[in-house]
Amino acid sequence: MPNNGTYSQLDMASVKSSAEKSITYLNKVLPDMLQKQKKPYVVIFLGESHMDHVDQEVTRAILLDPPVLAPNQTRVIYERQLDTVYPVISADFNSQRTEPRDLALSRKERSKILADMIQDAFENYDMTMVYMPCGSAHAQEIFDSMDKRFANLFLFIVKMSSTD
Predict the structure, then answer these.
(1) Beta bridge partners of 47
(2) What is the DSSP track for 119-132?
(3) Which end of the chain is more exposed for a tag (fewer CB within 10 A), N or C?
(4) Which residues are CB-neighbours of 24 under 8 A, at least 6 positions away?
């Protein structure tokens, strides 16, 4: 069993009620984290409560001007339908994918599909970094699914919703 992941949930308590403060925090903390924890693969999980304006403002700003990138190796993977919430992203992203819409699947099954999409980006498309706008409830499930199967070291950075 691989067990190669590092789960790192950001402490957003002092800034989470303000989109501006959250964006400033992420722009400072994310580059610092990647500098300190050198892992070959990185997931930046942008957790949200789907109707929260602070979460949406933060995610929109981060996707338009990402604080960290792996040149030519960064993808955005959206939870289903979030590509319509965040249709404009930085041209610096190499590609984007969206979870297929299948209403018959449970949350856990969808989390596994999202984990598979990340692993596919890393293993088959030479991506080394993934940004993922997604409901906060998926964070741990996606990490756990990847951690069981992904054979390489990876860092899974989680920004939870401002409502968590």
Answers:
(1) 134
(2) HHHHHHS---EEEE
(3) N
(4) 15
